[in-house]
Amino acid sequence: MDNQVRVSRSLFAFSIFYGGMVCIAGVLGNKQVALGPLSALGPLVGLGPLAVEAGIFAFLLLVVVSSAVAELHGRTIATRLVQIGFVPLIVSILLSVIVLSVPAAADMEPARRDAFALMMGGTPRIWLGGIVAYGISQTLNVTIFAALKGREGGGLLWLRAGIASVLSQIVDTLLFVTIAFAGVFPIGELLLGQMIAKVLLSAILVPPLIYVFVGLGRRLDRG
């Protein structure tokens, strides 16, 4: 008899989605976005208007998906999903390096060529910071979420997801900004501004989204 491992529909779908978000987060991060009314909180603490790199939206979806997988399938499976996420992350970086090193076609518009190089380029420290911050913060998110579930049981899903997301985003910001930019320029204001912005977005977006993904996962598995 052949030994077959059955993968649930929710885990299969979430894994594909997770891999896509890992790859797109770095590309989206090239754009800084204002936070609307939340931007005004920056001047209240001596900073400029709050802004955040757009990659945070993909990254928060990673947080939500890994938390949903932990809720539906357990901490071990969710941690494994985070570990597998290193594959598309590292491969996408390597492909970017290769493509950037290959000469552009002679008839490619200079504006498009330069824009592509600007968008896809990065320093080794930025790439390293992204890899380290991803691995530690996502693992921390799953660990905290699962630990809170063990203590509180199956209730308070929104609170468990929100706490895990906020704490993991603080660690993510500390690691990435420090590794990528420490010594290049003063990072104090950047750290504080990014932490405030990411904590606010985590607190606002993650609690409702976790219900959407957990509900979707249960529906997929029932089907």
From TrEMBL:
NCBIfam families: queuosine precursor transporter (TIGR00697)
Record's bilayer topology term: Multi-pass membrane protein
Signal sequence range: none
Segments crossing the lipid bilayer: 12-30, 50-72, 84-106, 126-148, 157-185, 191-214
Domain of life: Bacteria
Name of the protein in question: Probable queuosine precursor transporter
Subcellular location: Cell inner membrane
Keywords tagged on the record: Cell inner membrane, Cell membrane, Membrane, Transmembrane, Transmembrane helix, Transport
Organism from which the protein derives: Sphingomonas kyungheensis
Pfam families in the record: Vut_1
